[in-house]
Amino acid sequence: MKNPFAYGRVVEGREFCPRPKLEKLIVDVLASGQNIVLHGERRVGKTSLVVRTANKLKQSRLLYVDFMAVNTAVDVAERIARATLAVSHKGNFVVQALKLLSSLSPVISMDPQTGTPSLSLNRTTMQRDVIGVIEDVLERVAELHKKKPLVVVFDEFQEILKIKNSREALARMRSKIQFHGNLPYVFSGSSRTKMEHIFADPVSPFYKSAISIQVGALGTQSFHNFLERNFVKGGRMISPELWTGIQELGITITGDTQQACWALWQASEPGDDLGAASLQNALDVIFEIEGSKYGDIVSTIAPSQLKCLLALAVVGGKTVYSKEFKHTSGITTNSSITKALGRMEELWLINRAAKAYSFANPFFALWLKQRFSGAVIVT
Ligand SMILES: Nc1ncnc2c1ncn2[C@@H]1O[C@H](COP(=O)(O)OP(=O)(O)O)[C@@H](O)[C@H]1O
Ligand SMILES: [Mg+2]
Question: What does each C-alpha distance from 369 to 57, 327, 340, 362 come to in angstroms?
């Protein structure tokens, strides 16, 4: 039997552990044509959840746009344009592209290996008013919706703040979207502060334009039962202290728990009993795969930053100005600690919430701890 656990990608169908309350709430809001802002840390399951719920609305098609790593307004227009083509894919791609996007100077190219056509927008002819192109593409979205209902998902939407003139882009997008009537938009984002900047700030054009829904890590009991069923199908027995063991390692986010289970599976055989003591084997599997990536990070950050990360791994992130933190890190001034941690946050290595810092990836923290302080992680 192949490893039934999945991490690092969207899960659908039988891989998706039901979240009945959230699913119902989102389906109801979308069905009523209202917009949603979906908040939640990375890997809690936002994308899987919106894909699942959008698919539940049988009459609607999902128009999905990922904003991850957009740099310019052209990128934004292009991603939305590609998504419109993906939903209107019937018939000839090229004919559709030209029809849909004729005013946007589309460039259609063909992957020589696979023969798959793809679309990009002509950047040279677009210098005049790039944001106007986003508006045009949003018009197309509304037209498509009139033909057959859509649910539009703008995932990792906070990334739009990275483009030049993001404020103007947001204002003009908002003024289009507000005339899209019963077409529901889901704006999903992993950075609370940035999403609040877009949606909760009274001067922001998106202020109060959507219903806010928080997605947390999957609730323990039902998720653990779900995961346990997979182990049992593969002949592994689970002792209940496995779950506490996982939590005690700081592994609490949905996707991280799945990753730990994936590794536990790799490190075991049918007939094995898995308990907290099995976790070190699972960590070894993960370190084997990810260790070189961690090593690269360690070799590129400044020594003071590494010291702070190590202290964070060992002491935790609630009291980063405490004597213990300073002693462990060897960094004695608050301002140096703030600066180092701030840089680590910019690199997405750590998160800050309500003044406490935590590792974005708990396995990296465990690796640092084991590697540099020789700590025994699993006891
Ligand atoms: N409903 C779910 N059931 C089981 N695993 C899930 C579920 N939602 C998320 N996961 C786990 O979390 C990982 C990340 O999910 P994803 O939807 O990409 O999260 P996000 O969009 O919040 O970053 C998945 O690869 C999977 O391991
Ligand atoms: Mg996502």
Answer: 46, 16, 18, 11
Domain boundary among the residues 214, 229, 259 is at: 214
Q: In what side-by-side order are the strands of the sheet with 211-214?
A: 61-66, 150-155, 185-189, 36-39, 211-214
- Relative to the CA of 259, which ligand 1 atom is closest? 27
Same domain, 47 and 149: yes
- Same domain membership, residue 242 and residue 206: no
How does residue 355 score in pLDDT terms, banded at 50, 70 and 90?
confident
| Helix, strand, or coil (residue 128) | coil
Residue 167 maps to a domain: yes
**CB of residue 205 inside a 6 A radius of ligand 1:** no
Higher pLDDT, 353 or 46: 46
**78 belongs to a structural domain:** yes
Ligand nearest to the Cα of 4, by number: 1
Listed in sequence order, the residues at least 6 apart from 342 whose beta carbon sits closer than 8 Å to its beta carbon are none
Does position 133 have pLDDT exceeding 90, yes or no? no
- 8 CA distance to ligand 1 centroid (A)? 7
In order of 4, 16, 30, 52, 265, the CA distances from 12 in angstroms are 13, 5, 19, 7, 20
Is the C-beta atom of 39 inside 6 A of ligand 1?
no
pLDDT band at 136 (very low <50, low <70, confident <90, very high): confident
Q: How far away, in angstroms, is 368 Cα from ligand 2 center?
A: 26
Identify the domain containing residue 23 by its residue range.
18-214
Distance 128 CA to ligand 2 centre (A): 33
Q: What is the predicted pLDDT for the residue at 49?
A: 97
Q: Indicate if 25 and 139 belong to the same structural domain.
A: yes
Q: Are residues 65 and 190 in the same domain?
A: yes
CATH code, domain carrying 139: 3.40.50.300
Q: For position 126, what pLDDT does the model report?
A: 57
Residues 155 and 252 in one domain: no
